[in-house]
Design brief:
The strands form 3 sheets. Strands 2-8-7-6-5-3-4 form a 7-stranded mixed beta sheet, sandwiched between helices. The longest helix is centred in the N-terminal third of the chain and has 21 residues, at 39-59. The protein is α/β, with parallel strands linked by helices. The protein folds into 2 domains: 5-13 and 258-379, Aspartate Aminotransferase, domain 1 (Alpha-Beta Complex), CATH 3.90.1150.10; 19-256, Aspartate Aminotransferase, domain 2. The protein starts with a strand and ends with a helix. The chain contains 14 helices and 12 strands.
Amino acid sequence: MSLRCYLDHNATSPLADGVAAAVARDLEADCGNPASPHAEGRRARAGIELARSEVAALVGAAPDEIVFTSGGSEANAAGIWGLVAGEGSLAGRDLLLSAVEHPAVRAMGEELARFGVAVETMPVQRSGLIDLDALEEALERRPGATLAVQLVNSETGVIQPIETVARLAAHAGARLHCDAVQAAGKVALAAGAWGVATLAIGGHKFGAPTGVGALIVRHAPFAALIPGSQERHRRGGTENLPGIAGLAVAARHAAACLADWAAIGALRDRLELEVLGRIPGTSVYASGSPRVANTSCLGLPEALKGGAAVAALDLEGFAVSAGPACSSGVERGSPTVQAMGFDRAASERTLRVSMGLGTGLEEIMALVAALERVTQRSKGGGT
C-alpha cells in the first residue's frame, strides 16, 4: 500500500463527522463562563446540559449522573478516589482491582496504597475473564470494599461480565467502579441497569477530541478528586466548553453507529484466520472469549518481539501497537498477557491490531502480507 494505514484505534480514534465543526463553533462563539448568570453564561450552560444529555444516552445513565472530566484517566482516577474516600478517612479502606486493569487504574491503586488503603489484585483466567470465584471470596473477606473492574480490555478486547460482577459487589456491600473507556462507542452501555456506582469514558476513543471525557456517578457516597462548585461539586474547574461540544457530537454519532461494528468483527476474524494460516508460530490471545469487534491481540513467532514488529510495520506503512499507548516505548512485556498466565517471553511478543469503522479488507490483507515480510526478515536477523 502506498498510503498509511491506521490500525491503532484503541490508542486514539479519528474525529467523528461534525466534531471539528462543533469544536470550532464553540471556540468562535461569544465568551461565556457556564457559572455566570448573564446571557453569555446561560448560553454556555445550555450547551453543557445538551451535551450531558447526549453522553447520558450513550452510556445508559441519567443526565444528572454525568460529570465532565479531562479524559478517561481522570475519570478513572476520580471514580476510584470518589468511592474509596466517599465515606471519610482513607484509613481501613479496601480496594480490589482486576489483574488486567488499564495502567491508569493500576497507578491510582498504587497511589491509594501510599495513603494506607489496602489494595488487592483479583486474578483472571487464561481466557482473560475475571476469576469470579476468587472475586467472591475476596469480597467476603473485605465487605464494603471498592471494586474496580474494566468492561473491555484495551489489549485483548475481552469483555468482562460486568453485570455478574456488579451483583457480587452489591451482595457484599461493595461499590463498583467500571472503566468503560475502551467500550464506549463499540458496545451498548447500560450504566444504570448494571448497578455500577461509577463508570468512566474517554472521548478520544470514540471520535471526540483529546482532553475530554466523562464520569458517571450514581447513588453512592462520593468525594471529589478536584474540589470545587462545578459539576454539582463532583469535579471542580471551569468546564472545557469546546471539548464538551465535540464530545456531544461524538456521543451521538457513536450511539447511531453501534450496529456497524458487526462488520468489523467479521474483518477481525478474517485477519486472525489469515495470520494463523500464513505465519507459523502465531497465536491469538483470548480468541474464545467475548471480545469487542475491533481488537485482536496477536502472539508473534519466537524470533520477533512486539516492539520490533511495531517499528518494522511502521516503516511498511502500518500504525499498530504492542499494548496501551501510555505504556509504549518500553520493551517490558504485556502485564495483561502475563496476568492471563503466559510467561514474560510470550508477553513480549504481542501485537495489538485495533480497527475503526472505516477499516476495510484491503488494509487487513495488506497488513498480513507486511507482517509476513517482517517475520521472514526477523528469522534472517534483519529485524
